[in-house]
Design a protein that fits this description.
4 copies of one chain form a homotetramer. The first copy, chain A, is of the alpha/beta class and about 350 residues long. Chain A has 2 domains: about 240 residues, Type I PLP-dependent aspartate aminotransferase-like (Major domain) (Aspartate Aminotransferase, domain 2, 3-Layer(aba) Sandwich); about 90 residues, Aspartate Aminotransferase, domain 1 (Alpha-Beta Complex). Chain A is built from 13 helices and 11 strands. Chain A has a 7-stranded mixed sheet, with helices on both faces. In chain A, strands 8-9-11-10 form a 4-stranded antiparallel sheet, with helices on one face. In chain A, strand 4, helix 7 and strand 5 form a beta-alpha-beta unit. In chain A, helix 2 packs parallel to helix 10 and helix 11 packs parallel to helix 13. The interface between A and B is large, with 55 and 55 residues.
Chain lengths: ~350, ~350, ~350, ~350
């Protein structure tokens, strides 16, 4: 498929520097299963960003990272509190329920963000053996609705979680976009705010395919115990580990993570600026990272989708999502904006 | 790590043709999750080898392939009959029990191979609600002990399995080595012999990291139903699918699979020929594919391991395993043989 | 504890006829695990009420009945649609998620009742491998909020369920109360309306402790396959089965089930009539079976609870639940009514 | 069924004192779910026998007790070491694998008894993420083969288990028979020997149907945490708890447990003495509690089974099991002995 799409940041190719890093380690034999030097260097790079005491396990994908990380903390009768729009609730085909055996308590939010009030209000029946007990709060940064938590908001959620004996898990499939948008380091809304377990995204940030479980929780001794076993048992241990390690090393040892994320965010702003004010097009969520959610006349959508590729986010409202990635160009954006303008004009 | 090892075929690098294929698809956007054209071509290539009606799902690793494939057929109260040396029994950290919830009935064998007699003898309590019921026979080709099933042996196992209402699953992490050694196509000990579900190995045959679940069973209607959901739910669906598809395409559209496997097998024969007859060295299993299992004086092992890298296979007997891969050279082999000769000579 | 309570119908004792039936079978040896003649007679009695083709498995408790019954139909990537007030969602400590590995899609309702519209609206992403797929609709009759489905309402839900390839499961912990209130046989809102799997309640209807899974679904061939294995594997197979069978036989071979349920319902109406119109007391849900849900001044609750025993149903609103059972007497009711009147009067 | 059987101790009826105790608590209302005074008294009785610090949860059956108890200690990647003849391995339809998700490492033994040597030899790959890790040793007292552990043998197993970081679980479905045979209190081969979790049998000792999980492990702080949740989530929490409590109270507050067990053991010795020396009959296992395992001519078995009821224990060898219970009389035994003598004489 030659055309540029606005479907998702995983439609994008691998960043050339990442592919070069993979090619660079493709010489001779090495230890499998992450016991190689490249992976060791990648782990050091993760720690450089997220804290020297972080425990790190590289896995294949986001579902894997979320499962391995959440599973460390939970007993079977505990539940995970999350937004009803969370990836773990909507887009993982019930993997948390099946593989971890836990219940998700899914809370409706206006913007994909949990609040201490929502979390607290969801907690009833503590100590009642008939009810599952709160075990983890899971948030996504940036959220599935393209919104951002501030550091203070995450700190407050960590406070509630810890006061209630829960861990705070952060699904950071797009943590780079969040950090770039906030002008903060990767630790800025994670380690520094009391997050205990982070799913560190890589694939949407330009990798071929790699994510990492990063266990941060220093006030929860033993949280990382069994991390290696959990990764293996859940089917997330890569055989030729150096090729996973090389990807993260390429992303994190320099500023590639930031360049990629900043660029995607900038293109998204350009896109939002371009369509904002076009009659018949309504941007219905804050544009904070690399997604624009918009309403536009339903009958212009199919033809636009054919040319550009993007998702109808909500079948009921017709809301569409446009997403930019590390490789989106100004021309790509301008072409979409022009097409939207023209389609809507014809339609009106 | 610069030195060549005989540890396992997953210590080897990616074959250059595979890496080139990955690089070749790294242009522009494409559909994620295996909905891309490259993956479609890879699926066609798999079908070319294994049958036009095969259902194919590419996954990340061998554990994933085994779980997704076995899970299609089993109800929770059914068990899987396998050799006690099987990878699913020994090397998957209990993933089948945890993720599928099923019991493995592990049978001791002299050579890693199940027989109809062993399978039949293991079946008792059919219809008794207190006992798990036989649901699948799982065999490995080539086995974890470097041995091979003949087509007739697999046909006989399929016969027993099907007569008992079970499926026959084949863990083909090294199916290419087996086919090469037997002078048969990939279908020769799979599709042609009644295998219902195949874990098609790729990583050990020169890929960066990809395996496939191939559902063959034509006399079991509906066996592949839910294959896509099972892959997703078990955490084995790759985001940027084209990079997985490209690997299999490179392996299977030409004869790379066969070149790689034949070479590894040939180097292994050279190694076996080289150490056979060396006083103090005893080859204790048939050398049929790409592994040599040998006993040698215990005190020469550590120094040899330091230079070459290989595993002590059985801590109790001191048995070692040497394994060759697609990139093992005659010089690598000769160097090991010379070192073994010399170490043993000194020791004697 | 001597006092009569309005806490729940499981605070009540065993009906004397049931205890007598248990004592009557306590002679000599018998086959264990439900292979005895008493259990066979009990199964015939269940079939007499619910259909000759029903498959029946007696289990220990309601959670067990729901798990065994729901588990028959579901593949791991399918979800169960239920009201957010359903027992399986609220009061089973996450057992469905853990033991069956399935997701519950919990829908908010005003009255504890699903509707075809609610069910349909919850279904999105059919065929999308990222989403769990609809596998079962589970309703409760009478509901956890004391309300009733009419036969037509259940028929309509069965229609939606079957049209979507789902089964309709009915949690009948209080099916006897429902049938009595509607003036229908036990089949009247189950077999006759397309219910596929019924959890047939016994304990709340006067038994010592026994429930039954009743598989009705005739247009779903094979639905009951594995019922015996599922019961055993899920820990719900009783050893000395005759004592479970004897309970159901006592309940169902005559009209004990109806006498008990009708009496509890009548006492509940008396209670509702007694407190209705008392200033400061508001009955906030329809009184259709054996529960009254009411709001009353918060500061009178603790003293009343001490004398009578009942639950605050909703900690946030202060809503209380009073429930009558087979042994509640007119005097018990009148005493509670008088106490409520007097407490509220003092308070006002 | 009028005839007396030697099939199993769960073919026997409920002891009259137990039934009387159930009837005695059948007055008025009481707290459900084990929060009643009868259950509290039963728990005190258990503690009187097994230690004041024991945590106790009454459950429905032996499978339930084993699951709840084992589940407390295990992380998902840990395995349970047991004899291949253990009830959890053979007779629970894979419930441990499915409900707990753990692997059983089943060791062959000559007599159903584990030894420290067998346990130690089974432990390999400690710390290797590809292998499950040892989490619990589970033994049965008396064993499924009618044999007994001495206190010293159990102490030694506790030593190995604890040294390896495992718990020692004891399936005490017939712990009363064991204690009676050894002339020891119930604590004699449990609490006093380092057992951490006990499945305390009741049903085979004369109850209608009740077992208990007893958490003893004092050097494992927090082992009982979550006991109530585990019982509920695994479907083992009884609604009208007083009827379960009353059974254990009847069994344990006096010496009913001992009378019942001693009687069954005595009848078994009488039976063994009666058939020993009969030509053609060979007692092939030690007769230590309430089971006799014997070989006799295959063609006499069916007619004997028709008259008396007993199991062919091993389909391959023809070995039969005769088991006595609390209600077996001398006449019952003598009748069986005479029939065996006569059948064998005819046959010879």
């Amino acid at each position: 498929m030659a055309r540029h799409t606005f479907g998702s940041d995983n439609h994008a190719p691998v960043h050339p520097e990442v592919l070069a890093a993979i090619a660079a380690v493709n010489t001779g034999h090495d230890e499998p299963y992450g016991a190689d030097d490249v992976t060791a260097a990648a782990v050091r790079a993760v720690r450089h960003h997220l804290g020297e005491h972080a425990e790190v396990a590289i896995v294949f994908n986001g579902t894997g990272a979320n499962l391995v990380g959440l599973g460390l903390a939970l007993r079977p009768w505990q539940h995970v509190i999350c937004a009803s729009s969370a990836h773990i609730a909507v887009d993982e085909c019930g993997a948390p329920e099946r593989l971890l055996g836990v219940k998700l308590v899914e809370l409706d939010t206006p913007d994909g963000k949990l609040t201490p009030e929502l979390v607290e209000a969801s907690i009833t029946g503590v100590g009642d053996e008939h009810r599952t007990q709160p075990g983890a709060v899971s948030i996504t940064q940036s959220t599935e609705l393209g919104t951002l938590y501030t550091p203070d908001e995450i700190r407050a959620l960590a406070g509630v979680a810890h006061a209630r004996g829960m861990i705070l898990h952060l699904d950071g499939a797009r943590i780079a976009n969040a950090a770039a948008a906030l002008g903060l380091p990767l630790a800025g809304t994670t380690t520094d705010c009391g997050v205990d377990v982070l799913s560190l995204g890589g694939t949407k940030n330009g990798l071929l395919g790699a994510e990492a479980v990063v266990v941060l929780g220093q006030d929860r001794p033993g949280l990382a115990d069994g991390l290696a076993f959990a990764r293996k048992q859940l089917g997330q241990l890569g055989s030729k580990g150096r090729y996973l390690g090389a990807q993260f090393l390429a992303l994190l040892e320099g500023d590639l993570w930031l360049r990629n994320a900043s660029h995607a965010n900038a293109m998204t702003r350009r896109l939002a600026d371009g369509v904002r004010g076009v009659p018949g097009v309504e941007i219905i969520r804050p544009v904070q990272v690399n997604a624009v959610f918009a309403l536009l006349p339903a009958d212009v959508v199919p033809a636009l989708q054919e040319r550009f590729g993007f998702y109808v986010w909500d079948e009921r409202t017709g809301e569409v999502r446009w997403m930019c990635s590390w490789d989106t160009t100004e021309e790509d954006v301008d072409e979409l904006v022009a097409a939207v303008r023209s389609a809507v004009a014809v339609q009106v």
